[in-house]
Amino acid sequence: MISETYKAMLQQKSVIRNLAEAAGERAKVIGAANVFDYSLGNPSVPAPQKFTDVMIRLLQEKNPMELHGYSPTLGIPSVKAKIAESLNRRFDMNYGPEHIFPTSAAAAALAHAFRAVTQPGDEILTFAPFFPEYNPYVNLTGAKLKVVPADTTSFQINFEAFEEMLTEKVTAILVNTPNNPSGAVYSAETLTKLADILRKKSSQYGHDIFLISDEPYREIVFDGKKQPYVSKFYANTIACYSFSKALSLPGERIGYLAVNPACPDAATIVNMCGQISRGIGHNCPTSLLQLAVAEVLDETSDFSVYEKNRNLIYDCLVDIGFDVVKPEGTFYIFPKALEEDAVAFSQKALAYDLVLVPADSFGCPGYFRMAYCIDTEKVERSLPVLRKFAHEVYGK
C-alpha cells in the first residue's frame, strides 16, 4: 500500500515550480528571451573563480578516495574546524568543530534542526511572509508549523501577534533573515527583542525554546549594510546555512548546521544530528564539496547585479503606484498586487509573459514575489511590459 500522505501532496505542488514550468513551456513557443520569468530563486551570477580553481586543483592533486569516499558521519574534521574559525573571525563567536555539522545545504540542516528540538505534537512558529516549503519541512516531522501574521509595514516581526501565539506547546522559532520573499533584514533591535521574549518564555514554561535561523541569504545585503548574526543574540540558536546563494552553488547541495556554543546542549545536538541522518537519509554530504567550500569561506559571488536589479525594479514599481517595501537583501521583492486576489493578478500578468508568484502560500494573500536573479538587460526590457500590464489592466 502506498503512502496516502505523499500521494495527497501530488495535488499540492509548489506554485513557484508550477509557474517556472509554465514559463519553460512558453519559452519553447516565443523564446526564453521574451518570457520575463521572475518565478524561481536560482542564482544568476557565476560562482567565484576561486571556487572553480579550487575544484580543479583538488581533482588534480588529491587522492580520489579522499575526494570521493564517504566522509565521517559528523563531517570532515578539518572542514568543520575551518568553518568554525571563519564564523568566529567574522561574527565574534566561539565555535569549535564540535559545534558544526556539514549538510546537504540549508534544507537538510533544517531537517536535522527540527528533529533535534521537537517531539511529535510540538509547535514551531515562523513569521509571514515565509518560504512555503517550511510547511512540509516541519509538518512531516510530526511537529506543527504555526505562522505569525506579517507586519506588512516593514516585514519585521509582528511582536503583538507573536506573543499571543507563543504558548507552552512551542519548542522552536524559525526565522529567515534576510527574508525570502520580502527581502527584509531583521535589525539588531528586532533580534534583541525576540531573544528577550524567548528567554522570558523559556523560564516561564520551564523548557528551552530554540531559535532556528535559516540563513542562505546571509551575505546578500545591500546599501553597504550587514545582516546581524542571529546567534549572537540568543544562546539556544541553531544556524542553518547554505552556500547555494553566497557562492551561486544551488545544485551542489552543500551547507552546514552550527549550534551556538553558548547552548548547554550544543555538542550533544551535533552528535544527535549524526543519528537523525540515519533516519532521514541525509548522511554525509559529498566529500569533494566539503573540502572545496572550506577553502572559499570568505568568498562570495558578485552581488552588485542583484542590487542594481533591485533598484531598477523598485523604482519602477513605486513610479507605477505599487505598494512595496524596499528590500534590504536577497534577490526578491514583494509588492502588493493591484487587486485583492494575487492569484488572479498573476494569471493576468501571464498574458503579458510576466511570470509573477502570488504570495498566498507565503502567508501574505494579496502580495506577489518577484525573484530578480536574472540578467539586468532582461530586467530593463521587462519594465515597459510591466508598465503596459499595469496600465492596460488596472489603469495605472
What descriptive keywords fit this protein?
alpha/beta; Aspartate Aminotransferase, domain 1; Aspartate Aminotransferase, domain 2; seven-stranded mixed β-sheet; three-stranded antiparallel β-sheet; 14 helices; globular
Ordered list of secondary-structure elements with their pairings:
Blueprint: H1 4-9, H2 15-30, E1 36-37, H3 49-61, H4 64-68, H5 77-91, E2 100-103, H6 105-117, E3 123-127, H7 134-139, E4 144-148, H8 159-165, E5 170-176, H9 188-205, E6 210-214, E7 237-242, E8 255-259, H10 266-280, H11 287-293, H12 304-320, E9 332-333, H13 342-350, E10 354-355, E11 357-358, E12 368-371, H14 376-394
Parallel strand pairs: 1-10, 3-4, 3-5, 5-6, 6-7
Antiparallel strand pairs: 2-8, 7-8, 9-12, 11-12
Helix pairs in contact: 3-11, 6-10, 12-14
Question: How would you describe the overall organization of this protein?
Answer:
- With 396 residues, this protein is an alpha/beta fold.
- The chain folds into two domains: 4-47 and 302-394, Aspartate Aminotransferase, domain 1; 49-293, Aspartate Aminotransferase, domain 2 (3-Layer(aba) Sandwich).
- The protein is 42% helix and 12% strand.
- The chain has 14 helices and twelve strands.
- The protein has helices at residues 4-9, 15-30, 49-61, 64-68, 77-91, 105-117, 134-139, 159-165, 188-205, 266-280, 287-293, 304-320, 342-350, 376-394; strands at residues 36-37, 100-103, 123-127, 144-148, 170-176, 210-214, 237-242, 255-259, 332-333, 354-355, 357-358, 368-371.
- The chain has a seven-stranded mixed beta sheet with strand order 2-8-7-6-5-3-4, sandwiched between helices. A three-stranded antiparallel beta sheet has the order 9-12-11. Strands 1-10 form a two-stranded parallel ribbon.
- β5, α9 and β6 form a beta-alpha-beta unit.
- α3 (49-61) packs across α11 (287-293), α6 (105-117) crosses α10 and α12 runs parallel beside α14 (376-394).
- The protein is globular and about 60 Å long.
- The model has no long low-confidence stretch (mean pLDDT 96).
